Amino acid sequence: MRISIFGTGYVGLVTGACVADVGNDVVCVDIDARKVERLNAGEIPIYEPGLEDIVSANHTRKTLRFTTDAASAIAHAQVIFIAVGTPPDEDGSADMRHVLAAAQSIGERMNDYKVIVDKSTVPVGTADRVRERIAAALAQRGAKVPFAVVSNPEFLKEGAAVDDFMKPDRVVIGADDERAIALLRAVYAPFQRNHQRLLVMDVRSAELTKYAANAMLATRISFMNEMANLADELGADVEHVRQGIGSDPRIGYQFLYPGAGYGGSCFPKDVKALQFTASRHGRPLQNLAAVEAVNEAQKLRLVEKITARFGGKLKEAVFAVWGLAFKANTDDMREAPSRSIIGALIAEGATVVAYDPVAMTEARRVFGEQSALTYAASPLDAARGADALVVVTEWKEFRSPDFAELKRALRQPLIFDGRNLFDPAQVRGAGLEYFGMGRR
Ligand SMILES: NC(=O)c1ccc[n+]([C@@H]2O[C@H](COP(=O)([O-])OP(=O)(O)OC[C@H]3O[C@@H](n4cnc5c(N)ncnc54)[C@H](O)[C@@H]3O)[C@@H](O)[C@H]2O)c1
User: Which residues are catalytic?
Assistant: First the structure.
């Protein structure tokens, strides 16, 4: 099938590469000329496990092409995915500018039947707005071309995006046009040979499903963060509590890890956008307001622990920070807790030596040049001479350090484990002081 994708970010590039990999002929279009240039030169602008191999194989085979030319991408395809960014607007609502610009561009240029697929996370009612925008652009040039707009929210996780796309738990299709549904069934058939995973529903339900999923996951995280904070007060160990409740199949183990708060490009903005929609309809979501407030406070919980241990005197202290990305296996630092934590430490007069396996280039862009923030070549190098180690991201390579070596490297034997990666008894056994999130 001939498919085009608007937007070559985390979602667009993964979608394009995966659908090309199963035999489709794919054109990816982006307005970012530099990004397109890099992709055409064989460079992958983001870090995502497994992505480079399939992009490069399909690019070489010419079944995956990159362009800034929207006209050729539109002419090429029968199915066009919109996977552009939907960043938060100032009032917390989702900014629909890029989605509507893509719709406009499609309406101005299409000459035969197209299925336009909203893959970006968009507020309920967006498919209608996309349809109206395309219809208006067609009317403007007096063209009568049939088309359908479908909602197909994406559930992939950064850090496991290729795997998630190739083996989805479910594919949600919101549509009322049988021809469009049949085409999307064909697009997704190769990704569900084992059993049917397509859930077809009306458009509004599909749009709401995406927000509900992210809101539920964010709720679990904030709930566990509150349990961890309470465990700190009560002298309980939240790790035992996590296992004690996770073993109940009605609850399950996933997304029950307390930490330094959720970040990334999705949860913060989607929680805000859903709240905005709910409030506009006179149904503000009380649970979600608390989820967000807890998360904001949680990002600084680690700094509170550090400040308390240092008696409020952080001036001239040096902190080794392990992990900059908002979670493991990605270089994405959008709304990463590391930003709040490092910002707060530096504001208190401390200096930070950071290490991250893949996000240091992105961190340099995010933080700019600052004398109070430097980067180390290895986790141990970061720890050398530091007054404490602060663990912010749960990278695998941080999980089993040589604590004796770490103790020798640090100026003061202190570990603030913002992800509960370590066993407190083991750390203390090695002669280091340990502070976790809700650990005894
Ligand atoms: N990142 C994730 O893990 C994830 C998961 C599920 C859903 N989503 C949703 O998918 C959407 C895209 O997210 P992302 O993380 O891939 O964003 P991103 O910021 O990484 O990429 C968006 C891309 O769209 C391009 N773009 C903007 N306007 C365009 C236009 N008119 N034509 C062509 N390209 C255009 C940008 O230049 C950019 O390269 C968002 O709505 C997001 O909420 C993201």
Answer: 266
The CA 341 to ligand 1 mean position distance, Å, reads: 26
Number of other CB atoms surrounding residue 396 within 10 Å: 10
Q: Which two tokens stand for residue 62?
A: 């010419």
The rounded distance, in Å, linking the Cα atoms of 222 and 259 is 9
Alpha-carbon distances of 248 from 241, 242, 255, 269, rounded to whole Å: 12, 10, 14, 30
Cα distance between residue 29 and residue 115, in whole Å: 16
**Rounded CA gap, 55 and 53, in Å?**
6
Q: Separation of 12 CA from ligand 1 center, angstroms? A: 7
- CA-CA distances (angstroms) from residue 145 to 99, 124, 127, 141? 20, 25, 17, 11
Any idea what the Cα angle at residue 89 is, between residues 203 and 289, rounded to 5°? Answer: 75
Cβ within 8 Å of residue 23, ≥6 positions away: 63, 190
Whole-angstrom CA distances from 328 to 39, 71, 343, 356 are 24, 38, 20, 9
- Smallest CA-to-CA distance from 155 within 217, 224, 99, 202 is with 217
Q: State which of 11, 28, 210 you would mutate to test the pocket of ligand 1, scoring each by most atoms of that ligand within 8 A of its C-beta.
A: 11
Residue 65, classed as helix, strand or coil, is: strand
Which residue of 30, 48, 72, 118 sits with most ligand 1 atoms within 8 Å of its CB, as the best mutation to test the pocket? 30
Say how far apart CA 193 and CA 166 lie, in whole Å: 11
Give me ligand 1 centre to Cα 74, in Å.
Answer: 18
Q: Strand pairing partners for 414?
A: 433
Q: How far apart are CA 49 and CA 30, in angstroms?
A: 22
Measured at the CA of 342, the angle between CA 339 and CA 345, to 5 degrees, comes to: 145
Q: What pLDDT is stored for residue 193 in this prediction?
A: 86
> In order along the chain (440 residues), what is the average pLDDT of each group of 10 residues?
97 98 98 98 95 98 98 98 94 94 98 98 96 98 97 96 97 97 97 92 98 98 98 97 98 96 94 96 97 96 97 96 96 96 97 98 96 98 98 97 98 98 97 96
Burial class (CB in 10 A: 0-12, 13-18, 19+), 428: middle
What is the CB neighbour count within 10 angstroms for residue 105?
A: 22
- The phi, psi pair for 181, rounded to 5°, reads -60, -40
Torsion on CA atoms 335, 339, 344, 347, rounded to nearest 10: -120
